[in-house]
Amino acid sequence: MVMDPRIPAIADHLLLIEHEMRIQGLWSDAVPGADALASTEPFSVDRLEFEEWVQWIFLPKMKLLIEQGQPLPSVSGIAEMADHVFGQRRGNWKPLLKHFKDFDLLISTSA
C-alpha cells in the first residue's frame, strides 16, 4: 500500500490549527457531553461551537484517518465555515483562517 503523499503536510496543518487555537484561547480542557458530540448536523452546529467541533470531532477524526492509513477526504469546506464563524467575531483570526484554507487546498489536491 502506497502512503498518500499529502499526509505529512496535512498532519503538519492539523498541528498548526491546534497550535493557533491554543494561542487564540479557543482550546478547552472541558470535554462536551456525549449528546453534544453525537450531533448529526454539519459541524455539529446544533450542539457545539465551531471551535469545539474542530477540537473534539474534526482534529481527532483526521488524526485517526492518518494513523490508520484510511483514505482521506477529497474535499473540505472547513475554511468557508471558519470564515463565516470568525468573520462575526472580534480578533485577529488571519493566522487560523490561513491554516484552514491551506488545509482545504491540501485536501483537494489529488493524491
UniProtKB/TrEMBL annotation:
It comes from the Bacteria. Coiled coil: none annotated. Residues 10-105 form the YqcC-like domain. InterPro entries: UCP006257, YqcC-like_dom, YqcC-like_sf. Transmembrane segments: none annotated. Pfam families: DUF446. This is Uncharacterized conserved protein YqcC, DUF446 family. It comes from Pseudomonas taetrolens.
